Each structure stands twice: as structure tokens, then as C-alpha cells.
């Protein structure tokens, strides 16, 4: 093995001016240059190359990290109770407060929100009068349906109020002042059924 190497170096040295000593100097210079390039990388590389190369490597590492994190992340627990969207919930405030809020919204021309608040006020009034219970996870329309089941005599005005609300908030029909006026009338009829005037046949 040593003899082969000696013969190879001698053969290469025959083609280098100065022979083997010059070849040894050239090899030492190449070794030093290679070490310098490695030590100073990537300063000597054109910026348009390494600036593209480094972000790609970083992006691949981050992508692998996200994949590992997703595999190791625990599954989110299922909610114990259904989550009701805010627009379909019944706030835990007195019915009279909801009615006043509906009046203010109607005065400012926000009829869709006024319709929503009036149905909320109607349902809250039914809860306060113990016609129905405020069941967790129920929407305002589901509570209205439960009230009709408990009190079939409320089916006319309460069903109409729920239908108006659904047309505006589910079917996205533009609300008008007439819708707010109709909700006021439905609320008055429901109040008359729940609190009949003495001597009336309602």
C-alpha cells in the first residue's frame, strides 16, 4: 500500500514543475483553503444562494416540528353541554330589560336586533312565569317550541314570533319596522293570554 502511494506521488510529481516538494506545498495550500472556506461559510457564498437555501431548510424543519406536535397533541375533550350561538341564546337578564333594549334598537333603526331582543324577552317572560325551564343548550326558538308544547294556547302568537325571527336571522331576510311592530303585537297577545284581564273571555 505504501509502495503504491509512493509511486502515485512520484508520478504526479513528474507532471508538476518543481517535483514532489512543490506538489506538497500545493496540497498544503489546498488543505488550508478548504478549511478556511468551511470555517467562513456561508460568507463566501453569493447571498442570493444561501438566503434562499437557509429559509428552505428552516421551513422544512418547522414543518417537521409541526407534524410531530400535531401527532403528540392530545385530543380536545368534547364539551359536556352543547354551545349555543350568541344570537340564539337567551340572556340571563329580566324580560323587562330585554324589552327596553328592543325599544332602543328599534328607535335606532336596528330592526333585526330589535326582533331578536323581543323574542328573547318573550321567552324570558315565559321562564320567569315558570311556563318553561331555561334548559342548557337550548336556543331561543327551541325554548319557544317547548312553551307551545306546555301551553298550546300560545301557539298562534308565539309561533308567529318564532317564524319572524327565523326568517330574519336564519333565512337572512332584511328586517323592517313592520317586523318590529308585529313582534310587539305578538308579545302583547302572549301577555294577554298569560295575564288575562279580569272578566275577559281570553
Shape: rod-shaped
Query: DSSP helix count?
Result: 8
Evaluate the radius of gyration. Answer: 41 Å
Give the biggest beta sheet.
none
How many domains in all?
2
Q: What would you call the structural class?
A: mainly alpha
Low-confidence runs of at least 5 consecutive residues = 47-54, 79-84
Q: Provide the residue-averaged pLDDT.
A: 76
- End-to-end Cα distance: 118 Å
Helix content range of the residues, please?
A: 55-70%
Protein name: Protein-glutamine gamma-glutamyltransferase-like C-terminal domain-containing protein
Pfam families: DUF4129
Region (Disordered): 64-88
Biased composition (Acidic residues): 72-88
Brief summary of the model shown:
This protein is mostly helical and 202 residues long. 67% of the residues lie in helices and 0% in strands.
Would you give an account of this structure?
There is one protein chain. The N and C termini lie far apart (118 Å). The chain is 67% helix and 0% strand. The chain is rod-shaped and about 125 Å long. It contains eight helices and no strands. About 7% of the residues have low confidence. Helix 5 packs across helix 6 and helix 5 runs parallel beside helix 8. It is an all-alpha fold and 202 residues long. It has two domains: 71 residues, no CATH class; 109 residues, no CATH class.
Secondary structure: elements and pairs:
Layout: H1 2-14, H2 20-40, H3 47-72, H4 95-107, H5 111-128, H6 140-150, H7 155-169, H8 177-194
Helix pairs in contact: 1-2, 4-5, 5-6, 5-7, 5-8, 6-7, 7-8
Domain Protein-glutamine gamma-glutamyltransferase-like C-terminal: 119-186
Biased composition (Acidic residues): 72-88
Region (Disordered): 64-88
